[in-house]
């Protein structure tokens, strides 16, 4: 691997900080007083008369193991398969994991987040393009952002299945050419990871 020029190192430092900030924002969101508080565990509270029991009691306990190592190596070359667990104040509702790495000059970042509500009911995505055949409802949004002279392409897949929501964020760019990652690769990578993450809900 070629050594990174000092200007590139300086550019990558904010990227690492932003990745850490993403974890912090996920944590702080859990403590937001405006958020809907988690209800009692479905196992300890009987559902209302005539109401359907929720399909999922809680999200996967070890979110960093829901994707096969081969997929992580393919989507985020150079990342440690163990990933970075996203902390949550309520692990019976929210869990997640992220992976990020710079392979030569090619940067990739992947994040998976689970949110399981205590009540049953189908949910619907707002905005984005529909992703047929994935959960009860799924959509993908795509965008390209520019920071200085560097383009980053990102796809976010949101999947609803009964009382669970799975959100996958995948982005990347080439820090040598300054170009964003290929649109098709980012979109397909995000959808593929979402399929695996959703399947993990059923064990």
Automatic annotation (TrEMBL):
Gene Ontology molecular-function annotations: glycosyltransferase activity
Low complexity bias: start-end ranges: 41-56
Region ranges (Disordered): 27-57, 122-149
Signal peptide residues on this chain, from the entry's feature table: 1-19
Keyword annotations: Glycosyltransferase, Signal, Transferase
Protein name stated in the entry: Membrane-bound mannosyltransferase
Organism: Streptomyces iranensis
């Amino acid at each position: 691997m070629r050594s990174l020029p000092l200007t590139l190192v300086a550019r990558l430092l904010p990227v690492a900080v932003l990745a850490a900030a993403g974890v912090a924002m996920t944590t702080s969101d859990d403590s937001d007083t405006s958020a809907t508080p988690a209800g009692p565990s479905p196992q300890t509270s009987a559902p209302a008369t005539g109401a359907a029991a929720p399909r999922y009691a809680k999200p996967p306990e070890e979110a960093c193991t829901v994707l096969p190592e081969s997929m992580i190596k393919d989507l985020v070359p150079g990342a440690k398969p163990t990933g970075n667990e996203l902390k949550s104040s309520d692990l019976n509702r929210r869990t997640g994991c992220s992976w990020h790495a710079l392979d030569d000059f090619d940067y990739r970042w992947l994040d998976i987040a689970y949110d399981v509500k205590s009540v049953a009911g189908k949910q619907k995505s707002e905005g984005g393009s529909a992703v047929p055949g994935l959960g009860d409802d799924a959509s993908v949004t795509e965008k390209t952002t520019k920071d200085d002279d560097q383009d980053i392409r990102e796809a976010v897949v949101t999947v609803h299945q009964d009382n669970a929501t799975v959100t996958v964020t995948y982005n990347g760019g080439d820090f040598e050419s300054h170009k964003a990652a290929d649109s098709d690769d980012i979109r397909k990578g995000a959808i593929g990871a979402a399929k695996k993450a959703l399947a993990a809900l059923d064990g």
